Amino acid sequence: MRRLIALLLAAALTLGLTACGGEEQAAEPVTVRYGLSNAWDSLMPYNSPSGSNYTRIICDKIYDRLAYVHADGTLDPRGATGWESADDGMAVLFHLDEKAAFHDGTPVTAQHWADTISLITDPNCPALGRGTFSVLAGTDSNGCALEGERLGVEAVDEYTLKLTFKSPTTPEDFLLDKNRELYVLPTHLLADTDPAEVMELDLWDAPVGSGPCKFVEEIPGSQLVLEVNQDYQLGCPDFDRLVVTVIDKSNLLPSLISGDLDYYAFGGNVSVEDAETARASGLEVAEGEVPNTFYELMLNCQTIPSAQVRRAIDLALDKEALCLQSTQGLGEPTATDVTPGAEYTCSLTWQRDVEGARTLLEQGGYDGRTYSLACTSNRSGLAALMQQELDEVGINVTIETVDSAALFSGMADGKYDMAIASHTPGALPLWFTASRLSESNNIFHIADLEPYTYYIDQISASAGWEKRQVLLDKLQELLADQRPFIPLWFGRTLHVQSPTVDNIDYPSSSFSNENIWAWRMKGA
Amino acid sequence: MQEEANIMGRYLRRRLLTAIPVFFGITILVFCMLNLAQGSILDLMGEGSGATDADRAALAASLGLDRPLPQRYLAWLGDLFRGDLGTSYANGKQVTDLIAQRVGPSLLLTGTGVVLAVAIALPLGVLAAWRPRSGWDRAASALSLVSFGVPGFFLCLAGIFLFSVTLGWLPAHGMYAAGRFAGLPDLLRHLILPAGVVCLSSVGELVKQTRAACLETLGEDYIRTARAKGLTDRAVMVRHAFRGSLIPVLTTILSHIPHILGGSVVVEQIFGWPGMGSLLFSGISGRDYAVVMGVTVVIALAVLLTNLLLDLVYGLVDPRVRYGKG
């Protein structure tokens, strides 16, 4: 009996303390709780092994970028108030915002941007992902500065930054392609540091940036507390803190519905079924207008050497059904990697043709071997459907369900014959092909890359839409003829609107940037 | 007495000596499994991140991934002897620091869950054995059925749906509402649901063990003797039957210690609880071998020490247990 009374007392005490909690929290700073399904890695943006969007979306808060990229490819000022072409299209001048300052109060100048780029392209600096800078004059294909050559970055004056390229580049093309990997570092705090040791600094444990949020504390891989930068040049939101927590995907929507989360990363993207749940729970769901996923079937051209067989696979797949299974009506099958709705177009169309596929298989000398198809567990249904469709034309496939590291590794070392992958599409004509049809990333195991790189180089070096469009058409014809990968569909997203925060530009998170400075608490 | 202590000392030394190769065996096994699995952190370097082959080669060299497997293991072992568990591949932080940061929340979450489970299971198991086919017994069976039959992730999601989404009583995730300690009530509110799931997951085995052990003891001669001496049912149960059943029950309880230290991967991951389980999960999915090995060392040591502790406790609990030769 005494134990029972003790238990009851303990329960009453707990409830009492819980009730007190409400009053105690009222004095707390206004906090926006932000969910993320995967952890960021490094808070030093040029030292992220994954280079993932999860790291980018976090670095986007702490560090500043030159521009803000909208989902439709339009650009807004951010660290730079404007930009213009110079030197006959070989350079771009960025006019920097004079109000921009680091979190320690030091103004951000063109010299900071120039020093950042000089540091990261320094071959002695163990930076990751500096391939971003390989477009600049004076760098090699890995983005390392070449000895004896002038690096294509210059602080023209205190607030004008000049970037010089290897080939003509418009400011818009550069920003669409590279903005999300270009951050300004507090180089005034790195002045006496050996570039070789820059990644070892304690500074990256409590980073100082010039972005819309200041670092407060971190439990690496689990939680990050940020404070709003009241002096950010584009303004600041009407809350004080942003707490980023890594939560399993399965708990993101329930947390939003229960009011324990204000927003979750990448535009609160949900599936069609989850959207119904969200609506039923009183949340608003909006449909994205621009495609934000591109699905492809990666092929191993070494183990499937015949272009006819690869084209047969393309014709055998019912992209309409696959797209419907995956996007539930929020996607369009495609014959190309050129993003619909962007500036560049492609006239190629796709239609399933089972008989045509069988004929091509015969012509290609398909010997009845069984191909391995790798996919991640969430796409096993899709893979099963593909297996069924390929079986219809006589292609044998076994499915291997693996995680993404094993999938890409297996494709890279030739273990798998096919794999299902998805990407965030870009508005530029070479957003997909330039990085995948290259010597440094020949993931499709193409024996001779030259025909592709010829067009890719030509398109990169051409100025003007018309000339590029003509070359792009030729590249797409070559891809359709050789089929080193099979474009499947472009998908759009459903965004669950935050019940507590207004003014969120949901779709633009696909470019790894969020307009957090414009966020407003509802009813504030 | 002195001789008994000497025998026990020799026994413990022998157990410790056998634990050493077991520990190294575990580390070799985990190290090989991790490193031989398809894919590494180099394969996770984003395709669109501007990472080049040179970047991958540089990262491989800096992490030592370009060296043969035995060399890598020996290097890791050398660091371990110096008390260095290495640095995380993902964020460059010391693994010991990461573990130190995560072990507290795990102890709190899993420890609370297991203590609650013990608090429920022991009396319920004893009552169920005392009054077979009674309401207590049926309750114990039902609880065991739920505990064994319902997977942890489902319990998490069902708990969130019921207590967070539908009733709005408890928070659905995290350890604190505003990202940092804001008083005990806030922590308790966040703790109840995940600790409840841990409790429910563990309670079935404990109830079952307690009930079975008590039932077995109740059939012993000395229990009959105790009853014949005129002791009350309650005295027989508490003083004799329960004490006699302690060994299997203690084994089950103490076997949860590594679980407490290692955290509950599923519960921590779903609830966004910053413990060892979620650290292990992110280490595995991010191919962060240093982190996975670090957590493995902690869990392996916990298992081995727990086994040793069990041997010691047996002797204390049951005077019949003797540590003989051989």
Question: How is the topology of this model organized?
Answer:
The complex is a heterodimer of chains A (524) and B (326).
Chain A: H1 2-26, E1 31-36, H2 53-62, E2 67-69, E3 75-77, E4 80-86, E5 91-96, H3 110-121, E6 153-157, E7 160-164, H4 171-178, E8 213-219, E9 223-228, E10 241-246, H5 252-257, E11 263-264, E12 269-270, H6 272-280, E13 285-287, E14 293-299, H7 307-316, H8 319-327, E15 331-333, H9 354-364, E16 370-375, H10 380-392, E17 396-401, H11 404-412, E18 418-423, H12 433-436, H13 450-461, H14 465-482, E19 485-491, E20 494-496, E21 501-502, E22 520-521
Parallel strand pairs in A: 1-10, 1-11, 16-17, 16-18
Antiparallel strand pairs in A: 2-3, 4-5, 5-7, 6-7, 8-9, 9-10, 12-20, 13-20, 14-18, 14-19, 15-19, 21-22
Helix pairs in contact in A: 7-9, 13-14
Chain B: H1 2-36, H2 53-63, H3 69-81, H4 95-130, H5 135-149, H6 152-166, H7 184-218, H8 221-228, H9 233-244, H10 246-254, H11 257-262, H12 265-271, H13 276-285, H14 289-317
